[in-house]
Amino acid sequence: MTNDLMLGGLYLLMAMMLVLGSLMSRREPWAKLVKVALMWVTIFGAGFILFTFRDNLGFVAQRIKSEALGTPVVEGRTVRIPMAIDGHFWVDATINGVPAKFLVDSGATVTTVGNALAVEARLDRVEARDQLVRTGNGIVKVSSARADTIEVGSIERRNQRVYVADNDDLNVVGMSFLSSLTRWGVEGRWLILEP
User: What are 4-51's pLDDT values in tens digits?
Assistant: First the structure.
């Protein structure tokens, strides 16, 4: 990047010399010459910035898209999930290859899915719906099941225990998934997941 910076600076200096040389040869009032010179400096400065940081512009575009749509940003093996407008972290994930929207909730002990998603993902229920769990919305009856795979961005976990609830809009990535990660945490308006 240092070579790019030096090369970009050299281009900018050469452009400024050409512009100032051509402006000096004209017989215009100084105010107009200064105005035109500043315009050209701005144009070449913008070109310099774009040239120097061209490798990072892809990340900026990806970050803007993720902020607008709520999709995770994958940087190598790290997954960055933007905070939604409601203050929660929502992510498009898959369970047994079936995509669904999940709330990432560190207060949930076990990853939980709604009954409709469990049927679509063909989750084998281990037990009858006789367990009671306390949620933010009260006590819910659930049954245990096993998911072959749960994927959040580029992170995949196999043979995960999940709960299945009657409530079809209850899809939560809980601590059973989060605790399997090397690191996870909130940094500003982003939830960072590292496998």
Answer: 666 667 777 777 777 666 666 666 676 777 777 788 888 877 877 777
pLDDT digits (tens, 9 = 90+) for 47-74: 777 777 766 666 667 667 776 676 777 7
Any idea what the CATH number is for the domain that residue 135 is in? 2.40.70.10
The reply to whether 134 and 106 lie within a common domain is yes
Q: Are 99 and 93 in contact (CB under 8 A)?
A: yes
First to last CA, the chain: 29
State which residues form the domain around 86: 70-194
- What is the number of domains present in the chain? 2
Token readout for 83 is 């905070």
Residue 60 falls inside a structural domain: no
Q: Which two tokens stand for residue 10?
A: 């050299």
Residue 173: closest CA among 158, 189, 162: 162
Q: Does residue 157 lie in a domain region? A: yes
Determine the residue type at 90. W
Query: What's this model's pTM, rounded to 2 decimal places?
Result: 0.65
Q: For the chain, what is the total number of helices (H) and then of strands (E)?
A: 5, 12
